[in-house]
Amino acid sequence: xxxxxxxxxxxxxxxxxxxxxxxxxxxxxxxxxxxxxxxxxxxxxxxxxxxxxxxxxxxxxxxxxxxxxxxxxxxxxxxxxxxxxxxxxxxxxxxxxxxxxxxxxxxxxxxxxxxxx
Length: 117
Prior knowledge:
Layout: E1 3-12, H1 16-32, E2 37-42, H2 54-57, E3 64-73, H3 76-87, E4 107-112
Antiparallel strand pairs: 1-3, 1-4, 2-3
């Protein structure tokens, strides 16, 4: 089964267009480096929780929106090789594609897919 990198972050609502532009360029890089799919989602129904929530996890501020995204790779080996290439790709360098959000509050991780129906 595929291997997936998942991400949750908070983006200023005013930066939606800049975020989409940033994400499109990053998706191009990841696809060029072997990713099979790149998905970006803009939160529109992300409730606050009492114990935990996406909002709490990313310390969302009142003017921000939670984003949820993932990159699918053919395998973990493809992901490791692809990420290594992507991280040195000049198109992702902050001078060429600055992040329009606080990357310090970005949550991410790699996941083995165990069900896909």
